[in-house]
Structures are given as structure tokens and as C-alpha cells.
Amino acid sequence: MVEMLAGGVRLHLLPQRAAYLPEHHTLLVADAHIGKAQSFRRLGVPVPGGTTAETLARLTSAVAHTGAQRVVFLGDLLHSALGRNPDTWAAVAAWRALHTRLQLTLVRGNHDGHAGDPPPEWGVDCVNGPLPLGGLHLAHHPDPSADGYVLAGHIHPAAMVGGRGPGRLRLPCFHFGPHVGVLPAFGAFTGMHVMPRGPQDRVYVIADDCVRPLNSSP
């Protein structure tokens, strides 16, 4: 875990690919993309199974590690309408039954617009962003705001490490610019996009179940 400030708010950056706001007892999760693998299989694309279970296990770990009372999903909780599968829905409902006291909020993202809101039995409050919280604005799209520092998702940020050539690795990361911070994609079946780094940017990669600062220029 790494502790830092963004918009004057203290954040704990977790290797589970989430951020925790201790003063607000709130866990931030971006881009879970539940149902993505099922969506691909329904389109005839062979992809591994078990990704929903892995995503939910990661969420359980993050909640247990932090003692969070609330989870805010920064968009794309669901991947698409094709992912509305009975087995996937039952898995999430079973997870929810084990965490009935946990408040869940979804700041809708672009995929949520196509997939629709989660079913009522999941107990998720759905809002359009940005959602103010302390000095932060929680959103899906990483668009700057004059009203506060933005924490968002959407991009699935990654960073390249390890020098040049075939030994280079692409790792998920937290990417904080002067006005916008972007969280890594949380879901077990998501892609990554390498973001350029400016001189004021702070980047933290996730490797070996640790969060590590990346200080050197690419």
C-alpha cells in the first residue's frame, strides 16, 4: 500500500487495483467490466472462464483489507447487455448477500449506458458523474473540473518498466496528473493502455502484489 494526497484528500493505493479514502471509509474501484468474458463468448470468441469469480475475490480482499463501509465504482461496472448471464448474476448476488452492510454506488460509465443499471437485488445506487466527495470529484471519464480534483477510470492505465527491448513489462498503474487521477482497471479481464507521463505526473505501478512509485521518465 502507498499513501498519498490528491486534491487534499488522503488516498491509500492498494495492490488490488483500488484506492481507499480512509477519512470517508470509501473504496474506489474503476472498470470492473463484469460480464465481459461472457459477452465475448456469446460473440463466439473463446476466452477463459472464471474471471467474474476472480474480480469478486479481488473486491472481497480490498474490502477486508481496508474495512471499507462504502464502495464507489467509477464507471463500467458492467461490460455489456450480452454479459447479462444467469451464472454471472447469481455470482454477484451471492457476493452481495455476504456484504449486505456495504453501501455500493455506481458512477455510470460508457459501458453502463449500453449494459443498463445493475439489477435491484444488487443494491447499487446509480448516479451520473461527477460525484463530489470531500475535495474530490469522482467520475468515469478523466475530464478536468474547475470544481475539484477528478478521480476517474475509463483508460485502464499502464506503464512500461524494465528498460528497452523484449525485457520491458507493461504493468497496471495509478496515474495522477495535476488535475486528474486515473485508477487502474479493476476487472480480471480488461486490457491496458500505456499513458504518456508529464513532468508533474505521479505514477505508481502494481507488481508482485505491491504498489511502487515510478519516478523515472519513460
Relevant terms:
9-stranded mixed beta sheet, 4 helices, 33% strand
Mean pLDDT metric: 88
Helix content: 10-25%
Describe the largest sheet.
Answer: 9 strands, mixed
Bulk shape: globular
Assembly state (oligomeric): single chain
Low-pLDDT stretches are none
Please count the helical segments: 4
Cα radius of gyration in angstroms: 17 Å
The fraction of residues in strands falls at 25-35%
The N- to C-terminal Cα distance equals: 23 Å
What structural class results from the helix and strand content?
alpha/beta
* Beta strand count: 16
Order of helices and strands: EEEEHHEHEHEEEEEEEEEE
What features would you describe in this structure?
- Strand 2 and strand 3 form a beta hairpin.
- Strands 8, 9, 10, 11, 12, 13, 14, 15 and 16 form a nine-stranded mixed beta sheet that branches.
- The mean pLDDT is 88.
- The chain has helices spanning 36-42, 51-66, 86-97, 110-115, and strands at 2-6, 9-14, 18-21, 26-29, 70-73, 103-107, 124-127, 131-133, 136-138, 149-152, 157-161, 169-176, 180-182, 193-194, 202-207, 210-214.
- It has 218 residues and is α/β, with parallel strands linked by helices.
